[in-house]
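Because discrete structure vocabularies remain unfamiliar, we first show an illustrative case, written as a sequence plus integers encoding its fold.
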Amino acid sequence: MLRFAVAFALRGARKLVRGLREGLDEEERYRVADDVVARLQQHGDPWRLSDELPPTTGKGFSTPPREGS
């Protein structure tokens, strides 16, 4: 989940990173996100970074967890 969130947030990196004339393409955003997650996982995984994204509905919202799951 964090990988996706970081990659999504980096869409506006050109506005935040001094000297970055063009925005990052999708591959570059995911490389940065993968590096962030890997560095955090070096300290264990208290954030549950290895968890997969929950399934989404057709409108892009997470489905609520099933009771008893």
Observations:
- The mean pLDDT is 75.
- The helical segments are 2-9, 13-16, 26-41.
- Residues 2-41 form one domain.
- Residues 11 and 63 are 25 Å apart (CA to CA).
